Amino acid sequence: MATGLVFHELYLWHDTGSAASVFTPGLTIEPDQHAENPATKRRLRSMLEVSGLREHLVALPPRAATEDEIGRFHTRGHIERVKALSAERGGDAGVMTPFGPGSFEIACLSAGGVISAVDAVLGGAVANAYALVRPPGHHAEADRGLGFCIFGNVAIAVMHARAVGGVGRVATVDWDVHHGNGTQAAFYADPEVLTLSIHQDRLFPLKGGGVEERGEGRGMEANINVPLPPGCGDAAYLHVFDKVVTPALRRFRPELLVVPCGFDASGVDPLGRMMVTSEGYRAMTGRMLELADELCGGRVVFVHEGGYAASHVPFCGLAVIETLSGIRTGVEDPWLPVMTRWGGTELQPHQADAVRRAGQAAGLE
Ligand code: ZN
Predict the structure, then answer these.
(1) Is the Cα dihedral 172, 173, 176, 181 positive or negative?
(2) Ligand 1: distance of its center to the CA of 316 in Å?
(3) How far is the CA of 62 from the centre of ligand 1 (A)?
(4) How far is the C-alpha of 84 from the C-alpha of 39, rounded, in Å?
């Protein structure tokens, strides 16, 4: 069975406007492109085309999530505010989440794209799926957008799967370099959804994401954070899989896996300070597939989140989607022979300590 791909041209039309990285231009900040602009997503889509991989994927047309579906996670106030601003000239969905005219509809299509991917996997139309959606979702909170995220795409799709898809236990493994705070918050008291985030410690948001955030009430132990020091490479990330991800998922026994997949742990990402290579992303995807096969009939959905290095995201994304589909295109990542020679990419003692602390806090050793 094939791998599904969700994409829509309108994802690239979501307009984050002018900025210098994430900062609003002014008399001392020269206007430039916003860090979260369409380039990395467009270039990944182009790579799928040029490599020939796209013709082996099943195109999954996204639909717009309904306001009721979005309202499973978000407040009506947040939805109405975004809708009203979008109908005029745009605005900010909360904090650091600028958008232009029409972004409400595009954000609904982004959340709905993840729903389409989940439905296709649960319905058996595809073996697994990659949702190349935009705007991203994992920072959005119930009552506001945050960190470029208008609606919580993964949270909304997981709530949909549980409400109407006949799925009970769902686990999310978020390897975006930033903390998956929004997905965590959506299920913090829910014992049926395990949220696990691997991220650079207090990169964004500047607070939270520590190992002591383990869930609350009946949801206690169903949230796991793995905050890592800057500078972690493939070896540290795979160590996290050995010591935390694998035992945590085996203990939880999910019926569906969802991966909020950010490529901003890349060694050349402008917003993160990690050193993950495209082969690292390939290996992590392989581990997720093995766990999905072992635990939930191979049912896994990958959802695009961050990733801001235009020269590297296409190769990292290709490695992930090649692995999901089991097809190698032969395209070579020009960064790979560079990054693999960098010093300090082996597992460092202080990185192993951070992983040990996360595993201990989660009761895994
Ligand atoms: Zn990120």
Answers:
(1) positive
(2) 14
(3) 23
(4) 27
Rounded-to-integer distance, Cα 126 and Cα 190, Å = 28
Between the CA of 166 and the centroid of ligand 1 the distance, in Å, is 30
Active site residues: 139
- Output the CA 182–ligand 1 centroid distance in Å: 12
Question: E-assigned strands of 159-290?
Answer: 170-174, 193-200, 223-228, 256-261
In angstroms, what is the span from residue 176 Cα to ligand 1's centroid? 5
This prediction's pTM: 0.98
- What residues pack around ion ligand 1 (CB closer than 5 A)? 176, 178, 262, 264, 306
Choosing among 3.30.70.890, 2.60.40.3080, 3.40.800.20, 3.40.50.300, the CATH entry for 3-361 is 3.40.800.20
CA distances from 58 to 5, 121, 176, 244, 299 (A): 6, 11, 25, 32, 16
Full pLDDT tens readout for the chain, 365 residues = 899 999 999 999 999 999 999 999 999 999 999 999 999 999 999 999 999 999 999 999 999 999 999 999 999 999 999 999 999 999 999 999 999 999 999 999 999 999 999 999 999 999 999 999 999 999 999 999 999 999 999 999 999 999 999 999 999 999 999 999 999 999 999 999 999 999 999 999 999 999 999 999 999 999 999 999 999 999 999 999 999 999 999 999 999 999 999 999 999 999 999 999 999 999 999 999 999 999 999 999 999 999 999 999 999 999 999 999 999 999 999 999 999 999 999 999 999 999 999 999 999 97
Q: Collapse the DSSP code of 16 into the 3-class scheme (helix H, G, I; strand E, B; otherwise coil) and give the result.
A: coil
The domain ranges of the chain are: 3-361
| E strand residue ranges, 119-255 | 128-131, 145-146, 170-174, 193-200, 223-228
Q: How far apart are CA 297 and CA 292, in angstroms?
A: 6
Ligand 1 centre distance from Cα of residue 96 (Å) = 13
